[in-house]
Amino acid sequence: MPHALSDPAGPDHLGLVLAAGGGTTETVDPSGSVPQLIIAAVVGIVVIIALITWLKVHPFIALVIGALGVGIGAGLAPDKAVTSFGDGFGATMTSVGILVGLGAMFGKMLVDSGAADRIVDTLVRRSSRAALPWTMALIGALIGLPMFFEVGLVLLIPIIVLVAKRSEVPIMKIAVPALVGLSTMHAFVPPHPGPLVAISTVGANLGTTLAFGIVLAIPVIILAGPLFARFAARWVDIPAPDMFGSRGAVAPAGPGSGSGSASGAFADDPAHPGREARRGPATQDTASLPNGKSDFTRVISEPRSPSFTVALLGILLPVVLMLAQAIREATAPEATGSWVSLLDFLGSPMIAIGIAAVYAMVFFAIGGGMDRSAVAKSLESALPPVAGVLLIVGAGGGFKQVLIDTGIGGVIADAVQESGISVLLVAWVVSALVRVATGSATVATVTAAGIMAPIAADLSSPMTSLLVLAIGAGSVFLSHVNDAGFWLVKGYLNTTVGQTFKTWTVLECLISVFGLLGVLLAGVFIR
């Protein structure tokens, strides 16, 4: 995507910025004096944070109020502020909304068909006791690639508990790597809403960002996952909680945890009746314990599931298509021909994720014994849970456009450029501050991306992708009591607040800091 050029006139004339919804540029006349713009921006951000944290207003409403307040406070006419917000909202939803919807459908089919179960079961059964933490990190990353964090967490918790009980490995050695794999993918890798909206807002190349994100995620997952898990198991030595239920359904343990919408999504599985009618033959399952002993043998008749190969291909399909298109752009940018057109078409985000969704509808459904009615119900139920996320993402795009149209973006860009501080570090700090204040990784990402968008106009395409990853790293920093994920993990693992800080909060900080260090290191070699 083309980027705006820096303004040669300097800070006295706020320069060229990226126009909403396209790659063209236009000169923005500041809507007020520089002090007025700065005050409006600071007050607007404070208002957004206060509404979310103090008054408990939904982030969508808070972003709408904050964005319009910033526009009017910066000198835009009220109708112009509304128009600017609407333009940004529409442009963001056009580029991100479709992808989030398709990704949610794919993730729901992955769960309802039993494909996710198949991947987890296969990998765990082929792992030795010593390799289990590494296997759980891989499982967390694979499940986290196409699925939202909360859904992936609900899916993984029964596996974490079961593996810890049967292997007699401390539960933190099992839970921490899985949670790190899940959270790292959520922060760094599309098609998660955070990275997608950051990519759209700053004009980064999705394929390049995807490639950089996967490369960055590998050392982050290793360091914050299996390696940190050794320390976490010493700091918090607790037994695995008793929370077994039917396949695909588990309730959080411990008082005050609540059922939550995430667990309810599995308890009310719309594809369950279709799978129940197509159960496989009954088999005996022996729960193995050390020294060759077993404590029970049960007769089960599990629902049919897609094969491991079919499930894995479905998860990797959109990644491979988008990476192939990005590699073609990097290695043969001037190439032409029908193969180039086909590769560019298949590698475009909407087509790649759309193909994956269709693949899931056909092959996951066939392997999972789902009829057309079950598939339809599964797809239908995938969209309501992401409606709130889509509205937050769209409002973040509207907020970004207001910052640009008022000229505030130009002020921020000039200030960062004159300070000499790394743009990547600034992006991380902004995202981390909003994250700590609001507790929402998505709000932190969309807010930081909007603030950093004008600065991205002066960056190369690879640096813009690193900017997205810096924002993503900051968005998971210091999860604490205002973060829903904090309470989900506490409830599911039945830890105390202090134990949750020692494990979950620390691992989120490690993901954030290691991610920042990786981005800064890459920034030394990439310009």
Describe the structure.
The chain has helices spanning 34-53, 59-73, 78-112, 115-125, 132-144, 149-167, 171-188, 193-202, 206-235, 260-267, 272-276, 308-331, 338-347, 349-368, 372-382, 387-406, 408-419, 423-438, 441-456, 461-474, 484-493, 497-525, and strands spanning 16-18, 25-27, 283-288, 294-300. The chain is globular and about 65 Å long. It has 22 helices and four strands. It has 527 residues and is mainly α. The strands form two sheets. Strands 1-2 form a two-stranded antiparallel ribbon. 69% of the residues lie in helices and 4% in strands.
What would you call the structural class? mainly alpha
- Cα shape: globular
Distance between the termini: 17 Å
Query: How many strand units?
Result: 4
Cα Rg: 23 Å
Placed side by side, the strands forming the largest sheet appear as 1-2
Strand percent estimate: under 5%
Largest sheet: 2 strands, antiparallel
Low-confidence stretches: 1-26, 244-301
Count of individual helical segments? 22
Helix and strand pattern: EEHHHHHHHHHHHEEHHHHHHHHHHH
Mean pLDDT value: 78
**Considering DSSP H and I runs of 4 or more, what fraction of the residues is helical?**
55-70%
